[in-house]
Backbone:
C-alpha cells in the first residue's frame, strides 16, 4: 500500500490525480450516518450568503443592498447584542487573575464593580483554575449554584451529583441520546416536535436511529397535542420502532411557542404512560413573550408526583446572555437508576470535562449579582429582553400584513416560523431547479434583500405547506430596514408567480 503512494508523489501532476484512491477515508468508506446527517441552520442558504458577503467585502457586489442581515441563526452577539458587563468582568479576572492585585484601584476608577472582584475571588478560593481540568461533571460549587437556581425557580432542589456542566445544551442532548440508542433492542426512535430543531434529527441519524416526529398544531400557536403524540407513537410502534424518548422544546425552536401548564401536564403524563425518557430542552426559558409564564417540565413532574426519568437542558447561548461562543450549559438528571448515572458519568469522563470558562459562566447565569453590580445588570438584561419584544412586534406586524403569509403568535424564544402560501408557478419553477419550493423562495429573498433566513423544509413541516424560520436578533434599525425590503420582495414575488 505504501509503495504506490510514495511513487505517486514523484510521478508528476497527472499521477497525483489518482492519489485519492489511496486515501483510507473517502465518501465511499465514511460512516454513512455522517453523510446522511443534515443541519439546515448551516445549509445552502448560509453558504450562499457567505459567498455574497465575500463579494460585498471585495467591492464586487451586484446586489441591491450593501450588507446582509443575518436572521438564520440564534447568535445574538454576532448581530449586535453586547455581553453583560458583570459576567465579562468576572471572567476577565478569572482568566487573568493577576489583575486582582490592582483591582482596588480599578474599582475606584469605575472600571470594575466591587461585586465582580468579590465573585472572582470567591471562585478562585474554590479552586476555579481555568487552565486546569475539573471533575468530569464540572465544578462542584457551580453545580450547587445550579441547584440553588432550580430551588428558587421551582421550589425544589435537585441533588448536585445529578447536575452535569456541559459545552452547551447540545452536548447534554448527545449524551442522553447516545445512551438510549441501544441498537441491540432494535431500531430506536426519538420523538421530537415537527417542525423540529435539526440537532435532534442529525443526532438520530448519526446514532443510526429514527426521528419519530409529532406535529405541532400551527392553528393553536404550535401547541403540543395528545392526539399528535399518540398518532406518532402508535405509527412508530406499528413499524417496529422501539420508541425510547420524548423531546420537548419549550419555548420552541423554530416555532417560537411557549407551552401552557395544562399542555405540559399532558406531555409529562404521556411520557410516563409510555415509559419514555423525557428530554426537556428549555434553553429559551428567559425569552417569554406570552402572558403566561414559563413552567419547567421538571416542576410539572413534581407537581404530579410522577416517577419519570427526565433530563432538563439549559444553555448560556440564549436567554438574555447570548454567550453562544462561550459554550456552557447544564443538564439535570432526575429519577434515573443509580447504576445508569454511573454510566452517564463514564460517558462524560471520556471527554475529561467541559471547558472551564463555560462552566464558570453557568454560575454567573444562575447566580446574578445582588450588590453594586445589580443595577447595571438589570438595566442591561431589561434592554435586551425589551428590544427582543419590540423587534418581535415589528416582525409580526410586517409579515402578518403580507398577502399569502400567516404567522402564529410569537410566544417565546427568538424565532418566528411563518407559513408562506406559494403560487403554483413558483412551486413549478423550484421543481425545475431541483430545490424545495421554500428554499427557492428564501434564496430569492436573500439575493434581493440581503435577508438570511432558513427554509422550513430544513425543519420538516406538514406536507404541502411551506415556511421559513427567522430570528429577530439584529439591531432595531437593521430589522426595520430588512422588513421593509422583505415586504417589497414578497409582494413582487407573488405578482411574478401568480
Residues:
Amino acid at each position: 500500500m505504501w509503495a504506490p503512494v510514495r511513487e505517486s508523489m514523484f510521478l508528476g501532476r497527472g499521477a497525483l490525480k489518482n492519489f485519492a484512491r489511496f486515501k483510507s477515508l473517502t465518501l465511499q468508506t465514511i460512516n454513512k450516518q455522517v453523510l446522511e446527517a443534515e443541519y439546515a441552520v448551516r445549509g445552502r442558504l448560509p453558504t450562499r450568503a457567505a459567498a455574497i458577503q465575500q463579494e460585498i467585502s471585495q467591492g464586487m457586489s451586484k446586489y441591491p443592498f450593501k450588507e446582509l442581515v443575518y436572521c438564520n441563526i440564534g447568535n445574538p452577539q454576532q448581530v449586535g447584542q453586547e455581553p453583560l458587563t458583570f459576567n465579562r468582568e468576572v471572567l476577565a479576572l478569572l482568566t487573568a487573575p493577576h489583575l486582582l492585585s490592582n483591582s482596588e484601584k480599578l474599582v475606584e476608577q469605575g472600571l470594575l464593580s466591587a461585586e465582580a472582584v468579590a465573585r472572582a475571588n470567591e471562585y478562585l478560593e474554590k479552586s476555579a483554575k481555568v487552565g486546569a481540568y475539573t471533575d468530569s461533571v464540572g465544578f462542584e460549587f457551580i453545580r450547587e449554584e445550579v441547584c440553588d437556581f432550580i430551588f428558587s425557580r421551582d421550589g425544589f432542589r435537585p441533588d448536585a451529583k445529578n447536575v452535569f456542566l456541559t459545552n452547551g445544551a447540545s452536548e447534554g442532548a448527545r449524551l442522553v441520546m447516545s445512551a438510549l440508542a441501544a441498537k441491540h433492542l432494535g431500531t430506536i426512535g426519538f420523538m421530537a416536535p415537527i417542525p423540529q430543531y435539526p440537532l435532534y434529527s442529525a443526532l438520530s441519524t448519526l446514532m443510526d436511529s429514527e426521528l419519530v416526529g409529532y406535529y405541532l398544531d400551527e392553528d393553536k400557536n404550535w401547541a403540543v397535542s395528545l392526539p399528535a403524540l399518540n398518532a406518532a407513537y402508535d405509527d412508530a410502534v406499528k413499524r417496529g420502532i422501539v420508541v425510547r424518548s420524548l423531546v420537548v422544546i419549550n419555548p420552541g425552536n423554530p416555532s417560537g411557542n411557549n407551552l401552557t401548564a395544562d399542555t405540559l401536564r399532558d406531555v409529562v403524563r404521556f411520557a410516563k404512560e409510555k415509559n419514555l425518557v423525557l428530554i426537556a430542552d428549555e434553553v429559551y426559558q428567559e425569552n417569554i413573550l406570552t402572558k403566561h409564564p414559563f413552567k419547567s417540565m421538571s416542576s410539572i413532574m413534581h407537581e404530579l408526583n410522577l416517577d419519570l426519568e427526565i433530563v432538563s437542558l439549559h444553555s448560556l447561548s440564549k436567554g438574555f446572555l447570548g454567550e453562544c461562543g462561550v459554550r456552557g450549559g447544564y443538564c439535570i438528571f432526575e429519577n434515573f437508576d443509580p447504576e445508569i448515572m454511573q454510566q452517564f458519568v463514564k460517558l462524560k469522563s471520556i471527554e475529561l470535562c467541559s471547558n472551564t470558562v463555560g462552566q464558570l459562566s453557568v454560575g454567573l447565569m444562575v447566580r446574578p449579582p445582588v450588590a453594586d453590580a445589580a443595577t447595571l445588570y438589570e438595566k442591561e438584561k431589561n434592554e435586551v429582553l425589551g428590544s427582543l419584544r419590540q423587534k418581535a412586534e415589528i416582525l409580526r406586524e410586517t409579515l402578518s400584513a403580507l398577502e399569502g403569509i400567516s404567522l402564529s403568535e410569537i410566544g417565546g424564544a427568538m424565532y418566528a416560523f411563518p407559513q408562506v402560501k406559494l403560487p403554483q408557478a413558483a412551486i413549478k419553477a423550484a421543481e425545475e431547479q431541483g430545490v424545495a419550493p421554500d428554499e427557492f423562495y428564501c434564496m430569492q429573498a436573500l439575493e434581493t434583500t440581503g435577508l438570511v433566513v432558513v427554509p422550513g423544509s430544513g425543519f420538516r413541516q406538514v406536507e404541502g405547506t411551506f415556511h421559513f424560520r427567522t430570528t429577530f436578533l439584529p439591531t432595531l434599525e437593521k430589522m426595520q430596514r430588512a422588513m421593509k425590503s422583505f415586504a417589497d420582495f414578497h409582494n413582487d414575488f407573488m405578482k411574478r408567480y401568480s
Summary: Residues 425 and 497 are 5 Å apart (CA to CA).
